[in-house]
Write a structure and sequence with these properties.
By secondary structure, this protein is of the alpha/beta class. The radius of gyration is 23 Å and the shape is globular. It is built from 18 helices and 14 strands. It folds into two domains: 208 residues, NAD(P)-binding Rossmann-like Domain (Rossmann fold, 3-Layer(aba) Sandwich), CATH 3.40.50.720; 250 residues, 3-Layer(aba) Sandwich (Rossmann fold), CATH 3.40.50.720. The structure holds uridine-5'-diphosphate-xylopyranose (2 copies). One uridine-5'-diphosphate-xylopyranose (UDX) binds next to helix 5.
Length: 463
């Protein structure tokens, strides 16, 4: 089968950037990204590429270069499916909020809907690629839907997990550590794998393209995220011990990171990891392990999440305790709301949970984030369903600039590692705050000595 057209279902943080880079590197292919959400597609088609719905360094210029040439964003899902030989599925797979596996298993309803739609529309053979992170063996379910509801056409299902991290998505896509493609070990399966290998080979060296069976590929993605998250929980667990003993977690991380067997990356103590993947993927792993009766394995991985929740909770507790055991009626300013720097994504951001705890203590929360607006912040809080939307709106206010946000504050909590925070005029901020002026640095990005010299009571994680 000659590949000339690709369709991607889901124009989100994964589908959008991934397809933009494929379009840039494969000018001979026509790529259509479709989404049920009309508003999102309209934003992707905004004349000014700075208004595309996802903020990601370098993305808007790749979109500007390719959009309308060989990259298209559309709501016409059926047409895009029908004409494509390869269909990527990159819709979201949230954790189930109901029924069996509630709070743990991935909700596959969107994936199933996609499979049914593909089955209905397809008139010729298709390769269907799982790009969303999925529980192991989802490919099997997709295949069964396609084979039993389709009109006799042949489907090959591939697993091609995404390893990009938000904030560095474009460089991760351009220079991946590896591309992983899982498929059936049959001749047809191998042909489908080769078709996808050929696409990536346009810019990725062959020795970085790994092929395997579907299940190994699916499980590798969950495992990679579980290992990364585990490193953060490990260092965070020790950050608490450092605070008790007078050791400094940054020094510990530096010392162990120089052991090449351990490596220096992903050892930054923080207020806790966020993002759409880590928690969800580990919960998934835990659910699968439990469903096979592997309770020790399940408990082992669940501890990574328990530790992460503890880290967020303990940060909020520390703020309350330090502010003389009460924050009622006090103004606490958050610098950062996104789950990490260089993204406007807030899913599972530690800031949400810390705000929730502090609002329970009747604090007023002021927020400045360079890329997140008031609407999103309130939507994140409302989603927790701790209190009414009106109460959230009364307790939380976001600002257009950091100096206004910090005016009159009792304390500042640094919750995202945006680089611009380091360069602020901290003397000016100090002068405008209530005294004593507290800074709780949840990302360890500010200079402790300088902050103390200005007069701040400064507390970092793990020292
Ligand atoms: C990611 C990854 O794909 C997934 O692996 C990860 O586990 C979590 O989410 P992401 O691109 O970050 O997806 O999600 P999101 O930004 O929510 O985008 C998904 C898009 O799919 C949304 O725009 C949504 O409107 C769209 N969608 C969802 C459809 O078009 N059809 C559906 O049936 C469901
Ligand atoms: C992650 C994986 O890195 C990526 O490969 C996968 O495809 C999707 O999930 P992402 O969630 O976008 O990517 O960001 P990542 O850089 O992994 O950060 C996740 C969270 O961990 C962030 O909240 C970040 O601030 C935090 N983190 C990261 C730490 O607290 N300390 C660290 O040392 C590293």
């Amino acid at each position: 089968m000659e590949i000339t057209k690709i369709c991607c279902i889901g124009a989100g943080y994964v589908g959008g950037p991934t397809m933009a880079v494929i379009a840039q590197k494969c000018p001979h292919l026509k790529i259509t990204v479709v989404d049920l959400n009309q508003e999102r597609i309209d934003a992707w088609n905004d004349e000014n590429t700075d208004n595309i719905p996802i903020f990601e360094p370098g993305l808007s210029s790749v979109v500007a270069e390719t959009r309308g040439k060989n990259l298209f964003f559309s709501n016409d899902v059926e047409k895009a499916i029908e004409e494509a030989q390869i269909i990527f599925i990159s819709v979201n797979t949230p954790t189930k909020t109901y029924g069996k596996g509630k709070g743990m298993a991935a909700d596959l309803k969107y994936i199933e809907l996609c499979a049914r739609q593909i089955a209905k529309v397809a008139k010729d053979n298709k390769i269907v690629v799982e790009k969303s992170t999925l529980p192991v063996r989802t490919a099997e379910a997709i295949k069964s839907i396609l084979d039993n509801t389709g009109n006799g056409v042949q489907f090959q299902i591939l697993s091609n997990p995404e390893f990009l991290a938000e904030g560095t998505a474009i460089s991760d896509l351009l220079n991946p550590d590896r591309i992983l493609i899982g498929g059936d070990q049959t001749p047809e399966g191998q042909k489908a794998i080769q078709a996808l290998v050929d696409i990536y080979a346009n810019w990725v060296p062959q020795d970085k393209i790994l092929t395997t069976n579907v299940w190994s590929s699916e499980l590798s993605k969950l495992t990679a995220n579980a290992f990364l998250a585990q490193r953060i929980s490990s260092i965070n667990a020790l950050s608490e011990l450092c605070e008790k003993t007078g050791a400094d977690i940054n020094e510990v991380a530096r010392a162990i990171g120089m052991d090449t067997r351990i490596g220096s990356k992903f050892l930054k103590a923080s207020v806790g990891f966020g993002g759409s993947c880590f928690k969800k993927d580990i919960l998934n792993l835990v659910y699968i392990a439990k469903s096979y009766g592997l309770n020790e394995t399940a408990d082992y991985w669940e501890q990574v999440i328990i530790m992460n929740d503890h880290q967020k909770k303990r940060f909020a507790d520390k703020i309350v305790k330090t502010l003389y055991n009460t924050v009622a009626g006090k103004k606490i300013t958050f610098l950062g709301w996104a789950f990490k720097k260089d993204t406007n994504d807030t899913r599972e951001s530690a800031a949400i949970y810390i705000a929730d705890d502090l609002i329970n203590e009747q604090a007023g929360i002021c927020v400045y984030d360079p890329k997140v607006n008031q609407k999103k912040i309130l939507a994140d809080l409302d989603y927790l369903e701790t209190r009414s939307a009106a109460e959230n709106a009364k307790s939380t206010k976001s600002f257009e600039n950091p100096y206004d946000a910090c005016q009159g504050a009792h304390a500042i909590a640094v919750l995202t590692e945006w680089e611009e925070f380091v360069d602020y005029d901290w003397q000016r901020i100090y002068d405008a705050m209530q005294k004593p002026a507290f800074v709780f640095d949840g990302r360890n990005i500010l200079n402790k000595t300088e902050m103390q010299k200005i007069g701040f009571v400064y507390q970092a994680i793990g020292s």
